[in-house]
């Protein structure tokens, strides 16, 4: 008998299944993060990470806007729009995107260069665009489930703050403000998202699809670090990607 022929898992068992995906597949296990948090990255490796991670950061509010454009339930829209506000901020101040550009400035990059998206590796662009398309096109429940990597984010943000402060001269409360803020924002987001998935994934088929969506998202995050490692740790920078010395402040 196929696994999908069984009835749905209990709420507790399904949550444990989702959390196990993070324990096995979240990108805190990637060797690039061990290198970064341990103080072993060169300045240019850090800059390459900041530049390429911008692609992901900049697309978060865009994927959330795409999600909301399909949501008919105003309660769900009200809850979800906070995510856009967290990243975009107000008209003149605040927001995760501006905090990320403060990090870019701190590592010696021109924030306008980073915000332009110039120099992003092809693999990064393809991975992030795939995530935006997933959220735009897949069932809403799958799209919410894909966001549940936030379950595992506070741990990596805490490790990152500790590691960067210990090992890098650029690290201070201003440059690391993005990660500090996510320590409070991410748990608020995931509390809603997790409850939504656990409540609405009420068949085994939906639970399997939600778990697959979360696996897909961990693959998106992992692929970005694979590309960074190949390009900037191993020295195989692809054509068109950022070259050390470009876009400096």
Automatic annotation (TrEMBL):
Its EC number is 1.3.3.11. The keyword Aminoacyl-tRNA synthetase does not apply. Residues 16-226 form the Thiaminase-2/PQQC domain. It catalyses: 6-(2-amino-2-carboxyethyl)-7,8-dioxo-1,2,3,4,7,8-hexahydroquinoline-2,4-dicarboxylate + 3 O2 = pyrroloquinoline quinone + 2 H2O2 + 2 H2O + H(+). The keyword Oxidoreductase applies. Transmembrane segments: none annotated. Pfam families: TENA_THI-4. Keywords: Oxidoreductase, PQQ biosynthesis. Pathway: Cofactor biosynthesis; pyrroloquinoline quinone biosynthesis. Belongs to the PqqC family. Ring cyclization and eight-electron oxidation of 3a-(2-amino-2-carboxyethyl)-4,5-dioxo-4,5,6,7,8,9-hexahydroquinoline-7,9-dicarboxylic-acid to PQQ. This is Pyrroloquinoline-quinone synthase. The gene is pqqC.
């Amino acid at each position: 008998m196929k696994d999908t022929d069984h009835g749905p898992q209990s709420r507790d068992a399904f949550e444990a299944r989702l959390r196990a995906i993070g324990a096995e597949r979240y990108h805190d296990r990637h060797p690039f993060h061990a290198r970064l948090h341990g103080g072993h990255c060169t300045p240019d490796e850090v800059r390459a990470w900041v530049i390429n991670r911008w692609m992901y950061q900049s697309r978060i509010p865009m994927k959330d806007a795409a999600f909301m454009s399909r949501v008919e339930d105003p309660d769900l829209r009200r809850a979800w729009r906070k995510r856009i506000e967290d990243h975009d901020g107000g008209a003149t101040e605040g927001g995760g995107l501006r905090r990320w550009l403060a990090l870019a400035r701190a590592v010696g990059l021109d924030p306008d260069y980073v915000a332009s998206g110039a120099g992003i590796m092809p693999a990064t662009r393809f991975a992030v665009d795939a995530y935006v398309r997933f959220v735009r096109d897949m069932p809403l429940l799958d799209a919410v489930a894909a966001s549940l990597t936030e379950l595992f984010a506070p741990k990596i943000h805490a490790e990152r703050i500790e590691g960067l402060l210990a090992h890098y001269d650029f690290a201070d409360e201003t440059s690391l403000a993005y990660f500090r803020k996510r320590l409070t924002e991410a748990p608020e987001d995931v509390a809603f998202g997790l409850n939504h998935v656990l409540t609405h994934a009420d068949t085994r088929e939906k639970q399997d699809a939600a778990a697959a969506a979360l696996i897909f998202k961990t693959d998106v995050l992992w692929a970005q670090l694979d590309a960074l490692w190949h390009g900037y740790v191993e020295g195989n920078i692809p054509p068109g990607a950022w070259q050390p010395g470009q876009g400096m402040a």
